[in-house]
## 1
Amino acid sequence: MTTPPPFTVDPNVGPATQDYLDEALANPGFGQHFTDHMVVIDWNRAHGWHDAVVRGYAPITLDPAAMVLHYGQAIFEGLKAYRQPDGTIASFRPEANAERFRASARRIAMPELPDELFLASLSELLAVDSRWVPAGGGESSLYLRPFLFSTERGLGVRPAGEYRYLLIASPAGSYFTGGLKPVTVWLSTEYVRAAPGGTGAAKFAGNYAASLVAQAQAAEQGCDQVVWLDAVERKWVEEMGGMNLFFVLGSGADARVVTPELSGSLLPGITRDSLLQLAKDFGLGVEERKFSTEEWRDKAASGELTEVFACGTAAVITPVGHVKHDGGEFSVSGGATGEITMKLRDHLTGIQQGRVEDPHGWMTKL
Ligand code: PLP
Ligand code: COI
């Protein structure tokens, strides 16, 4: 499909009252409130992508034998729209999300949504729901959630022949209820998130379902998040539940950032990729390599490891202060938030909010 189908807009939508909207924007939380509209685009073998429509946000009906309910073909993306100082709305590297959405689709044997249609769906939704984008100058934004799932009815195990793409949006404040407080993490050695050759590099719903029991275990241990290790040796750090990880070694002129290399089983985060670039721009050393739990523990003890943080669209940059595992626990730099963590965070959010220059052309007007 080369020319995206035009979108129709359903006029029969009762928008949220101003009171409801004011309340949602004052206390957005994460994923609690949804905008007035959603985008729907269907795919089938005969027609490809068709019937693109912006319609009122509402429940959808599915056949009980819809294949997604049985065999789980479902992928998603997550990106944000930010109010700029001049009142316009821009998003951060949406082209990268479009590309990753196609990569996820390929891995789960689903049709690839063309990038131009993915990007058009964002603009079409924002055109009718712009009042849901929080005011600029703060950390709030409008979280955009594109997703794709199989709708064909049937119980044969095979790639479905019918799919539905939906885009919904939700005002977002801080992902963690504690705000910017350093989080405590649990090193998961019992459960793994993804194995070599598996689906870990895709934004596939099943990866998140597989993570929930370990997340519950982390909560039982008094931790905020799980850190996933490699499936084979249970030794190499991969990532967190919805975030990639960075380690800062050394300080001052010797400081360098290390992040686990893309192993094939962790998600290639767009924030991760952007921070590698910003760290280089700041003159910091940058290493993408394997990082073990022993290195984490030993260098935290020796003081060479000065900061640890997690990053992702929803979580932005969140400091990691304390680590618990089966055999004990330890802190990094007394559990305090580090200087480089804050410098990268301020710069990244500055670009997103239009406060600082965007030399890499990462912001796209919607
Ligand atoms: N890792 C996982 C498992 C995620 O779900 C996410 C969130 O999208 C990330 C990492 C961070 O990716 P990004 O920076 O593209 O949001
Ligand atoms: C995101 O950061 O967009 C995520 O998808 C993380 C989580 C909410 C699943």
## 2
Amino acid sequence: QVYRHAAEASRAVAEQIAALIRERASQGRACVLGLATGSTPTGVYAELVRMHQDEGLSFQNVVTFNLDEYFPMQPEGLQSYVRFMREHLFDHVDILAENAHVPDGALDEREVAEYCRQYEAKIAAAGGVDLQLLGVGRTGHIGFNEPGSGKTSRTRLITLDRVTRRDAASDFFGEENVPQRAITMGVGTILDARQVVLMAFGEGKAGIVKQAVEGPISTIVAASFLQEHPNAQFVLDEAAADAL
Ligand code: GLP
């Protein structure tokens, strides 16, 4: 779907998420959302907060699993995705604290592999992800699945690509301060979601969107694996769709 502006696209995605939350609530069921960080989904979160405040949209039946977190990263760190999610969504809606999951970047390295297995087990125990929201990095990463990430990869510790670290440099006041690694759900974890919505805005994303949508399905561009997903949408503004 191509919208003229990002704001319009964000409203449409927020409507879709709200409809799913309400449908599940009316059935007395949980709604399991996979959530993303970065600048792209902030408009969706702002709209969901508005719907909570103005329309009484409740998040009490919502369970969330975030895609990724820098490693190492303290939860209260300026660039932490825990902090990001609190500021943009969790602190402004009625989600139960125990239902909002973000990978823990503050673990001892020796605990990470087991922690990642447990993260996967928690997703499975929640019934799997109903809707996975995604952005896309300039390397084609979804979550932090950098080039080389396989189709069956699961939640794990990865090494960040140079391009990704450069893109994050301003957030960290210099590339040298960007962590070398991150914990991310795998491509396989993402593909298990029943529905996937990838959002991309702005001319800077046009090249990678073209590769993801029209290019070969390959580990070089993790987002290209979405071509094989039975229910994946790309929600773009006109600038990001420009090369299609
Ligand atoms: C980071 C995040 C990704 C995000 C990407 C793009 O690498 N880990 O989940 O999709 O940035 O960020 P932005 O939406 O700011 O362009």
## 3
Amino acid sequence: MHNFDKLCLNKQINRALVFANFSKPTIIQHKIIPHVLNRNDVLGVAQTGTGKTAAYILPIIHNITLDTSRYQKKSCKTIIIAPTRELATQVFENAKLFSKYLSIRLTLIVGGVKPKPQLKSLEKGVDIIVGTPGRIMDHIRSGGLTLSSTKTIVLDEADQMLDLGFMPDIKKIHKSLPKQRQTIFMTATMLDQVKNIALNFLNNHKEVNLSPKATPIEKIKQKVILVKQSDKLSKLKAIIEEHKIFQSIIFTRTKKRADNLAKALCKNDINSASFHGDKRQSQRNRILNSFKVGKLNFLIATDIAARGIDIKDIMFIINYDLPMQPEIYVHRVGRSARAGKEGTAISFCDSTEKNRLKDIEKLIGYKLKSEVEKSLDLKKSNDDNSTVKKKRTIKNKPFFKKKRSNSKKKKIKKNLNKNKTFND
Ligand code: ADP
Ligand code: MG
């Protein structure tokens, strides 16, 4: 693929790309950037970690350099909306990075912090707002923000933004924009029913869909462990020890389970902290930063960390509980194997989660390798794909069913022993 020069972006953006060590555009960047530069509405779908942020940020910054219109007070030329404060902050940092050599006014509008400084920064008008829907709506309601002269709106993680929870705010935000506007939707998963909703917001749009089936990125080695609910903790500890995992995001179903698990792991000298929406924003920032710099080894998170968060070199994602919505699985495991790197996702599935597993497999279009043996040997399977093929795994066998015939029991035991021998 050619380098960024061919995309005819502003020279100062190209300088920033060199600074950021971006030498070639990714496929989604190559395909999306021209459409955004042309001010088309765009629906972009591409797998996790493939560079969707720069795909919209770079041409938006370029278009702003060409926009000579005056700043309107309390307004912005482009608004970018993301579902969580952390993701909005990350996108904001990206915008700052790529406009490093330009004079562009950027403002971050998220909840959990004082609104006054945000209002002040909006006073004279800005180029780009990056924010979360709740706080953006607060400012619109209070008269601190008006979108009547905004030309471009981006919804990152668009399918979630069009979900029931966010929809009322998104509708209102969209209504307060001028009729002539550019709408950009980006996501890694776009189920058909959500796409129909998305189409109502788009006008003559260009679609780039590199991941029609909502599949996890191929670089992620995925594995399911059929386990009893009561064995999850000991299994987790064993996996951490066996594979010498020193950094991982472990996803739980609820905030309480995240808290409890973090406590239990800390008791076992496993350096962990829970991360969820009930924590104060200052705590959330501190925990996430510690995790990013490696001071914290295990982030025990709810789905607040499932989408968009880009932390370099996370090798392991563990689903302590399977997610309630199948597409969240794709996003969770996509926190690893980013920007072409490798990753491993291990998911626990207890007897109450079997339907969730089925839904995930239906969505991604293939069966996940599942195991019941005590000791996994991921290292071996990572190193040698041919041995993975040879390895006998038990595909979705009802391991936890109470009643089982003796022959079935023997068969499973035999398989377990085989795997054990293999692993030893
Ligand atoms: P997505 O939104 O598709 O999940 P991101 O935009 O968060 O992906 O990008 C994933 C990672 O890839 C980030 O760390 C980003 O800096 C890096 N990246 C994106 N595009 C490029 C590129 N062209 N060259 C090098 N690294 C890139
Ligand atoms: Mg993203």
